[in-house]
Amino acid sequence: MAQENSQQFEYRAEMKQLLHLIIHSLYTHPEIFLRELISNSSDALNKVRFRKMSGDALRDADQPLEIRISLDSKQHLFTISDTGIGMTRDDLINKIGTIASSGTLEFLKQLKEGQKNPEETLIGQFGVGFYAVFMVADEVTVETCAAGPDEPAWRWQSTGEGAYTISAGERKTRGTTITLRLKESGQEFARAYKIREIITKYSNFVTFPIFLENDRINTVEALWHKKPDEVKESERTEFYKFISGDPDAPLAHFSINVEGSVNFKALLFVPQHAPHDLFNLQHEKSLSLYSNKVLIQHDCKELLPEYLRFLKGVVDTSDLPLNVSREVTQSSPAMQKIRNIIISKTLAFLQTTAEENTAQYRTFYKNFGPLLKTGINSDFENREKIVELLRFETSKTGEDEILSLKEYCARMPADQKEIYFLAGEQRESVLNNPNLEIFRKNGWETLLLTEPVDIFIIPAIGTYAGKNLVSIDQADIAALSGGKIEKIENSLHVSLINLFKETLKDVVEDVVVSKRLVDSPATLVTGKNGMNTPLEKMMRLMQKDFKPAKKIMEINLDHPLLQNLSRLYLTDSAHPLLRSCIFQLFDSVSLLDGTIPSVAAMVKRMNTIMEQATK
Ligand code: ADP
Q: What is the mean pLDDT of residues 434-459?
């Protein structure tokens, strides 16, 4: 009778591609099929528990919530059965027959093309889901009965090749049974020792009992309900690996236990490594929300602001109304309070780590600092706390040393009134910027901003401890050297400067005598209406027709080159080399500044100058 009602469905094109990739390229970790199946069963059981607690009518309400696995090594069969929420016919078509995440197929293609390392973490993170079964099976049968009182049973069957069939099923009680006919290469998965080994590795912390041929094999414990010192380090690490899919131990962990106007417990982890794209964490599992040990939601985004989404862990509260919709739960005042407490406890934890375990903090900061910093522009309430967590390389720090703003201020000489920073792409190039010379000479330390996000964030801080944060190419040197710019009394210098101004009138805003240069002949600084250089570069990348403001060229009259030019001017003010050298000097400083107008013109002129110099 089942066969009579059988209906065949074609997989969609993208699904066929996915299946092809799964069957032909992902052999490296076939055992993950089991983790996927157990996690689906566990989700299905959670849904039942959740419904029970909300008082909904359920079929077979007294069935124990559990997962059972049975094996038949002679027939090469693997069977997993749960008493979960089950599936309707529509579920079988809409949920089993489609790819969960649109990123998955793209990712798997890259994996196949060898652009990505097929590490188990990555495969785990993206999760090929149910279809992982086709890595080990050549025929899969799903028998399921949904939890609603009068739902009929259904059977879904496929060889993973292009189509599946759905027919009336025979299951009598609520839940789902999935039977795999194992292929030749997958036959070890009908062996108990193998299955036991995999479950211990991947699924030990599943919150429902898993039975293998009547033996209970997982430990079911809500670690976050225990006192932190009652949990063994190894247990905690295993738990972290289980919830995060990360094969490595976490960098750090901390617990929160709050009782009062809101009640919750949390066990939170900071990973050892940054994910492959820190600014795109949508595939990352962050915090799971529980209510009295019952999972409400994996990766509950409302619990954390974007800038802290590197955290992993669980949050368990009894304060959320379970019988209302998820949307209401999310916007409930309890949720807001929990979120605020998690933020402040996390920032406090990071602050303590920074003070007491600098090596660990440095690792954290290197990995997650760029994301954390964005909180300065998005979380105004906690801005000051985040500012305290910032660390910088400076013109004086050694390779691995980083300073907080507090430490920087403590090191400031008495005559330094402002906090200086300089942005650029790399430490080396920033350190070679001629504008740093006067700062070095005076012993004024400069923060080096080499992260691309810095330029959007650090200037926005404005002031720290009453001191302005100033980009050194915008600093008012005359004011900071405490005096007025000395008058240029030497009329020869006045004439030379005028010649510079006239020669460069189309390309610079002004030419002035420098107070900041010590060893270099000239430099460019931001003019009255200009932006700082890295921001300008960014603007040019974003808008093709962006016209940067002209800069001010500063020249160092003590430099031998300028002295030679003065002498040349004295003997022959119309000497062609004079103007070529002025243009050349402008091009050289533009090159350092990253804003050179034409490299070809510069090279041509330089060749002429060398030719004349070697005559
Ligand atoms: P994901 O679990 O990431 O959603 P899967 O491909 O593993 O992706 O599963 C797709 C969907 O099929 C699940 O979201 C769930 O709705 C349904 N499903 C899978 N296994 C079960 C099960 N054992 N019981 C009930 N529903 C299930």
A: 85
Distance 41 CA to ligand 1 centre (A): 8
**Ligand 1 proximal residues by C-beta, below 6 Å:** 36, 40-41, 44, 82, 84-87, 91, 95-96, 100, 127, 129-130, 176
Packing angle of the helix pair 333-356, 358-373 (nearest 10 deg)? 140
Contacts with 298 (C-beta within 8 Å, 6 or more apart), sequence order: 285, 288
Confidence of residue 102 (pLDDT cuts 50, 70, 90): low
Domain ranges of the chain: 7-216, 223-359, 360-481, 491-613
Whether the per-residue pLDDT at 125 is higher than 70: the answer is no
Distance 42 CA to ligand 1 centre (A): 10
| Calpha distance 192→29 (Å, rounded) | 18
- Sequence-separated (6 or more) residues with CB below 8 Å from residue 605: 580, 583, 584, 587
Instruction: Note whether 360-481 and 491-613 share their fold.
Output: no
Instruction: List the CATH code of the domain at 491-613.
Output: 1.20.120.790
- pLDDT value at 480 more than 70: no
Comparing 206-215, 364-373, 589-598, which segment has the lowest mean pLDDT?
589-598
Task: Give 144's contacts (C-beta < 8 A, 6+ positions apart).
Answer: 86, 87, 92, 153, 154, 155, 156, 169, 171, 175, 176, 177
What local confidence, expressed as pLDDT, does residue 277 receive?
A: 75
- Residue nearest ligand 1's atom 27 by CA: 40
Residue 124: per-residue pLDDT = 46
Return the best residue to mutate from 15, 36, 40 for the ligand 1 pocket (most ligand atoms within 8 A of CB).
40
DSSP string, 596-615: -S-HHHHHHHHHHHHHHHT-
Render pLDDT for 326-367 as a digit per residue (tens, 0 to 9): 555 666 788 899 999 999 999 999 999 999 999 999 999 999
What is the average pLDDT score of the chain? 85
Q: What is the pLDDT of residue 13?
A: 78
Paired with 297 in beta bridges are 289
SS3 120: helix
> pLDDT band at residue 19, thresholds of 50, 70 and 90?
confident
pTM value is 0.65
Fold of 360-481: Rossmann fold (3.40.50)
The residue whose CA has the least distance to atom 7 of ligand 1 is 129
What contacts 24+ positions apart, CB below 8 Å, involve 569-572? Answer: 569/492, 569/495, 569/496, 569/499, 570/492
Q: Are 108 and 21 in contact (CB under 8 A)?
A: yes
Please state, as a whole number, how many other Cβ atoms lie within 10 Å of the Cβ of residue 540: 15
Looking at residue 223, its pLDDT comes to: 87
**Structure letter (DSSP) for residue 173:** S
pLDDT in tens, 164-173: 999 999 999 9
CATH number assigned to the domain covering 223-359: 3.30.230.80
Reading the block at residue 180, the tokens are: 């795999």
d(CA 460, CA 374): 11
CATH code at 7-216: 3.30.565.10
Cross-strand pairs, 45: none
